[in-house]
Amino acid sequence: MRAAVVVHPASGRGRAGRVADIVATRLQDQVGDLITDLVTVRVNTVEESRRLMGRAHDAGLDLVVVVGGDGSAHQGVQFCAERDVALAVIPAGTGNDLARTLGAPADPVAAADALVEDLLADRFTRIDLGRIEGEPAGSRWFAGVLCAGFDSAVNERANRMRWPSGPRRYDLAIVAEMARLRPGRLTVEQDGVRTEGEATQIAVGNIRHYGGGIPICPAADPTDGLFDLTLVGPASRLDLVRMLPGLRTGRHVEHPAVTTSRAGRVRLGEANGWVAYADGERIGPLPVEVTCVPKALNVVGRVVSD
């Protein structure tokens, strides 16, 4: 097996860069019989990641170990899904939702040890992916959750802010967006069935969690061949405040403004000013169309329910 450890050093405020060598050493020392060739690739931009990973693939690559958060994992998914290369994720970012889904311990060193155990046990799983089609994304994959509406507006505002840094930036962005909260007209087409109405936000989940452990789609299973959708209809500021306590437990779906459904193909539109995000990465303005592609990605580990 030929493997590459891919690290975005700035991920997780530098945490990824600090633990990358430890991960590589664990793999070299404990699974050297399985991994005959191991390289460490340090990248600072998406373009650099794609270029260096392409070179690695030309040399023959069987496994990519991403050290970072969901944004880093998102880039690993693009590479591995297109080339049928296995993916492992060591959580060292801020969200780490894909790593959580695959049962990785929160501590990156412990996750490296768990990865060693999985490789020695030949523990691999095929999971579904979402494929985003059409402008402006072209064709692109996501492993986690695609969302649009209020939470995406928070992301948009936070990305524009230069102060403060860290979680407080998102706290302030939430307050600012809450003050200007307005439901929008949203068309949702699920497996050819079209509905239209006022909505506050929508999440299309391949996995349960986004945003660092929030089970926005609490019943989602990345091995069942379907997306889980969580739609928040017209909601007031008070409604959102009342939903907040249930977000960490998944009980927000019990609120009267929330509806859930399942589908293999989803189109969100028309253009209403909303912007879509997937795996925490900006996709672009609606409309957007996504398809669940069963067993599109080979990952190291097993899917866990929590």
UniProtKB/TrEMBL annotation:
PROSITE patterns: DAGK. Keywords: ATP-binding, Kinase, Lipid biosynthesis, Lipid metabolism, Nucleotide-binding, Phospholipid biosynthesis, Phospholipid metabolism, Transferase. Residues 1-136 form the DAGKc domain. Its cofactor is Mg(2+). GO terms for biological process: phospholipid biosynthetic process. GO terms for molecular function: ATP binding; ATP-dependent diacylglycerol kinase activity. One of its GO terms (cellular component) is plasma membrane. Transmembrane segments: none annotated. The keyword Kinase applies. It comes from the Bacteria. The keyword Aminoacyl-tRNA synthetase does not apply. Pfam families: DAGK_cat, YegS_C. Belongs to the diacylglycerol/lipid kinase family. This is Sphingosine kinase. It comes from Actinophytocola xinjiangensis.
